[in-house]
Give the backbone structure.
Amino acid sequence: MKEFVISEAQVETAVLVGLITQTQDERKTNEYLDELAFLAETAGAVVVKRFTQKLPMANSVTYVGKGKLEEIKQYIHDEAEEEREIGMVIFDDELSAKQIRNIEAELKVKILDRTSLILDIFAMRAQTANAKTQVELAQYKYMLPRLQRLWTHLERQGGGSGSGKGGSVGLRGPGETQLEMDRRIILNRMSLLKNRLAEIDKQKATQRKNRGRLIRVALVGYTNVGKSTMMNLLSKSEVFAENKLFATLDTTVRKVIIDNLPFLLSDTVGFIRKLPTDLVDSFKSTLDEVREADLLLHVVDISHPGFEEQIEVVNKTLADIGSGGKPMILIFNKIDAYTYIKKAEDDLTPKTKENLTLEELMRTWMAKMEDSCLFVSARERINIDELKRVVYQKVKELHVQKYPYNDFLYQDYEE
């Protein structure tokens, strides 16, 4: 009788590569690689090794220097000898077609950059037709300038236009012909997707017009800061929330009532450092919810060591999409997970951000932001009543300004 052995599906292993440059010190590079590792984990890979190199700027041919590339190659070879195959090498910046081609030729494994990894996660997360269309368009935009490397095995050497003026008549190889065909197919597909997105934009605009005289509030912030958990708390609904990057791709809009005041609350896609501009363009209809919002609730993960930089990234992205000057409440989430390093009594050096207690940090930010700053824990439901009170006051102010003849909402019938 035969025995059947059920083998587990092998998880793909990955190696990460980052650069320490003039504009990016070692601490920042390690933080970026932590985020890249989280992205890889979200995509379903396991990170087994990291490589970093100090360079003034990325090498235009191989991203890292020759010696470092040789070191990575040797590591992949040694792992293969021990029957631990390395599935891919992921680079922390966007790579050009030339860089990908040269690195692949040297390492002989799958090469990804930060952008292609983010696109892969977006493709995995996309649920609705809208999100799928937006992701597909972004993927084609990314693929178009990198098409050439797919057809190198069919190319022939030769330049010129074939017009007889110093050209190479008869040397236009099948690779180039295939390249032109692929480019045309992709351009046609992109045109079709853009038309489809234009139709979706019209539908979304109509939906937004039909929402009546209600103030619109949008949750914004870095990815994985707890926006969806906050949405579930305020709207008492079940929006998908998970400790993974980009758990939310589609904008969810819910009607929320605090006391006797109704308003619309939307949960939007999270932002991230080095977010590809193509992706921002493709997600125009999703980001329109942010553009048309009257009030932004900027959620921040205070337990993250680089939360201040994340705030900058979000503010810059908001400015890029034309939503920079909107009224905003800064909500520091995850206060239950906040930790600090206590300084020794004999240490006379100035305190750094890592040495501040939560109370000291609260005082600092509240002095800066006044009443537009809150510290909460959505998971542990700490200070949620205060959050509702502040949101109520802000929405009420905006409602009175926007709809001055609709103040019947605020009558206190108990009095």
Observations:
- The CA atoms of residues 136 and 196 lie 12 Å apart.
- Residues 213-342+352-410 form a domain with the Rossmann fold fold (CATH 3.40.50.300).
- The chain has three domains: 12-121, 127-150+173-210, 213-342+352-410.
